[in-house]
Amino acid sequence: MLFGGIDVGSLTAQAVLVEDGTIYAYKSIPVRPNPLESAGAAFGNLLEEKGLKQEDIKYVISTGYGREKIQDAKVAQENVSEISCHGMGAFSLVKDVRTIIDIGGQDAKVIKVDDRGELVDFVMNDKCAAGTGRFLEVMAKTLGVTLDELGPISQGSRNPPEMSTRCSIYAETEVIHYLQRGVSREDLAASINRSMAERVMALVRRVGVEREVMMTGGVAKNIAVRTELEKSLNVRMVNARIDPQIIGAYGAAVLAQRERGA
Amino acid sequence: MITMGVDIGSLFSKAVILDDEKLVASNIVATTGNTADEIDVMVEEALGEAGMDRGEVECLVATGSGADLVKNSEFEEDEVTCVGMAAGTLVPGVKLTIDIGGQSITSMMLDEDGDVVDFMRNDKCASGSGRFLEVMSGAMGVEVEQVDETVTLSEKPVLLSSQCGVFAESEIITHVNEGEKMPDIIAGICDSVANIVVAQARRFGMADKYTITGGVARIRSVVRVIEEKLDGTYQKFPHDSRLAAAIGAALLGQFEEE
């Protein structure tokens, strides 16, 4: 029996199908102009790829941007906040996970769950771009590298300069200033990733950390930010072993199964 | 007595020459990388406008983030003290000064002598600063100088919910895609800057009479909204508001020599 989860983010939209709590199939697409279109396309493409029809899926839960509208349009039967979905998704992958650091394109969250994957506490920053994926996006563009390169190239850094500002707009000016003075892109990438990790740590400190810790969302793919966070936390994070961007949709599908699973 | 004030800011550098409290010459140039040479040229141009040579200046005072780059200054003074001195001396009865610079917003409370007794400053976040206005209007293809003219065509300013400059930039792009008119978006940006400034001033404390200095004070569309929302009476700074810190530095030079 199949259950579905749909998660629309700021940059990508995901659909996941689960069977007996494990991932049967998933699809990730760049977002369309509105969340409903994104949800329809991600879920529709996934069904098509697997030769399935909507009625083959017993229950679907939507999360992320426009989750209510997606339910209203009957693409999903229920909607749940992305905080609960990321918590449940990470917990279902690794049962020892208690703290989830979820960094998306426009926000950052630290989520704490109990031994059943239920939400205990969370903090969120969606007011300031510093410490979100958006900061890395702006910085990568300023450096003239892709978002995917930002983590790997910083591994070649020898002498990363100190960033005096955390504001994305001022940091852009600062990075340009360093580039003009001949500081290497490798070093600047390392400074940027470190600054990013520092902002996330400020958020983490507000709720505290309980092991195990998992990182979800697009920024989890940045190896340098991940390593910096592990150093600051003095904790080795557990590996999701799947694309960290689909964990919200996976959590939604797990919740769908809990809701209607026999 | 002839004194000179030089203010090296994050976006612009300014030089003024005062004869007692009378402004006789001023010069404003963009701050770029080559600051030391730039300062020399700026100072020479101001002297040229006044028809004076360097020897006639009895005291030169430097201020701003690049104050240490100014050669031959008698002393350096921080911008807050300088702006407070200019507002306190030139705007009668003013107690509160709000300085909106390229990379900061500062609210200052003054005593009868124009000395700053307390201040609150945000220079950590671009929200509401001149840089914020520049980035936002730039995303719409409108120069800061054209903002006021553009806003006159606005019928219904859009509401921007993001205070973060990066998020606000995405938000205005969404408004463009949704078919909002350009003047309405520019007016929305001005409202947003004004609201951020008003929020800081309210947190800091109010006074009967206040003035606004710094580059953003020249944008009528921003000042008008601040005036509507803040209690107290707005008093216009009598010169180009960008010159406040430089004028204050030159005034401090006057008192120093007396």
Structure in words:
The complex is a heterodimer of chains A (262) and B (258). Chain A has 2 domains: 1-94 and 241-262, 2-Layer Sandwich (Nucleotidyltransferase, domain 5); 97-239, ATPase, nucleotide binding domain (Nucleotidyltransferase, domain 5, 2-Layer Sandwich). Helices cover 43% and strands 21% of the residues of chain A. Chain A has 9 helices and 9 strands. In chain A, a hairpin with a 5-residue loop joins strand 7 (108-113) and strand 8 (119-125). Chain B is of the alpha/beta class and 258 residues long. In chain B, a hairpin with a 5-residue loop joins strand 7 and strand 8. In chain B, strands 3-2-1-4-5 form a 5-stranded mixed sheet. A 5-stranded mixed sheet of chain B has the order 8-7-6-9-10. Chain B has helices spanning 35-50, 79-90, 130-139, 147-151, 165-177, 182-204, 220-229, 244-257; strands at 2-8, 12-19, 22-30, 59-63, 75-76, 96-100, 105-110, 116-122, 209-213, 233-234. Chain B has 8 helices and 10 strands. In chain B, helix 2 (79-90) packs across helix 8, helix 3 runs parallel beside helix 5 (165-177) and helix 6 (182-204) packs across helix 7 (220-229). The model of chain B has no long low-confidence stretch (mean pLDDT 93). Chain A binds chain B through residues 33, 106, 127-129, 134-135, 138, 165-170, 173, 180, and chain B through 33, 103, 124-126, 131-132, 135, 162-167, 170, 177.
